[in-house]
Write a structure and sequence with these properties.
Largest sheet: 8 strands, parallel, barrel
Radius of gyration: 23 Å
Helix content: 40-55%
Strand content: 5-15%
Shape: flat
Strand order of the largest sheet: 1-2-3-4-5-6-7-8
Length: 298
């Protein structure tokens, strides 16, 4: 599994790259603007992006802002032409750019197809379903980025949970206990039912069970797993970039799945190195150093 850093903060990027574990980066326009503004206006947007590309030893995803296919392709060409001399550029294209019913539904796919034919690497973003990932793969994308954290939030919202009240942004979402509670509730409700047909017709029961998943996807991790299963079945050759990562447990479980890439916020990267027993052991080892052993290094 390759690690990308999900950041536009050049200080964070440089520090993370100095650890020799980073193979790429993902950005978005708002993150870049915030970072440029924080620099005090000493650098232009173009120069700042160029510095990111010069720092990162691998692909850096840059995002178009248009919503129709023709304009997205033109913007992608501009980004690729402008910045590919500084490093490895991938272009972020949203899977669906529709802001209204029936408008621009497939423009993202059209842009992906055109750019792939021009050999411009595409990172298809805002992937929320395996079906979207499959469409992007068939259009010729280089990468797909499923948004794990946003799917976890979506399912929790369906269950009536509120972020900041019932859970915090970085909290891990485990669907297993949720499913166990739902099974218990169902078991309570089925008493007195005489047939499966009667039970199936209970609207409130179907709604209760449906709230625990998003069209058969039970968590952000489950979303990534299902996409990987599809891609491996048909050997698409598309790399999955697990995105919207909120905590270290998600990173570990992604590694267990065999995901190609995880794009990780700087804060989560730092958290991955910590454990209280490691610190305890380090203090113990340090205290145990005897003078005669220390003299070996003098």
């Amino acid at each position: 599994m390759k690690f990308f850093i999900d950041s536009a903060d050049l200080k964070e990027i440089r520090l993370a790259c100095s650890w020799s574990i980073i193979a790429g980066a993902t950005t978005n326009p708002s993150l870049i603007k915030t970072a440029v503004d924080a620099s005090g206006g000493d650098v232009t947007m173009k120069d700042y992006i160029a510095k990111i590309l010069e720092t990162v030893p691998g692909p850096v995803s840059l995002e178009v802002i248009a919503l129709d296919a023709e304009a997205m392709v033109e913007q992608a060409r501009t980004l690729y032409t402008t910045f590919s001399s500084y490093g490895d550029v991938a272009i972020k294209i949203p899977i669906n750019t529709s802001m209204a019913e029936g408008l621009n539904l497939f423009d993202g796919l059209q842009a992906i197809k055109q750019l792939s034919e021009e050999h411009i690497p595409v990172n298809t973003t805002l992937i929320m379903t395996p079906e979207q990932a499959l469409l992007a793969a068939k259009a010729g994308t280089t990468y797909v980025s499923p948004f794990m954290g946003r799917i976890d939030d979506h399912i929790r919202a369906n269950l009536g949970l509120k972020r900041g009240v019932d859970y915090q942004r970085g909290d891990y979402y485990d669907p297993t206990p949720v499913q166990q509670v739902l099974v218990q509730q169902v078991a309570t409700q089925i008493r007195g039912e005489t047939s499966v047909a009667q039970l199936y017709q209970r609207k409130e029961l179907r709604e209760l069970l449906a709230a625990a998943h998003d069209n058969g996807v039970y968590s952000g991790l489950d979303l990534v797993q299902r996409i990987l299963r599809i891609f491996r079945a048909y050997d698409y050759g598309v790399e999955v970039i697990a995105a919207s990562i909120r905590n270290t447990r998600q990173v570990r479980e992604l590694a267990e799945l065999g995901v190609h890439i995880a794009t990780i916020p700087f804060s989560v990267l730092k958290d991955m190195i910590h454990h209280p027993k490691t610190l305890e052991g380090l203090k113990s080892f340090t205290a145990d150093v005897v003078p005669s052993y220390a003299q070996l290094f003098e």
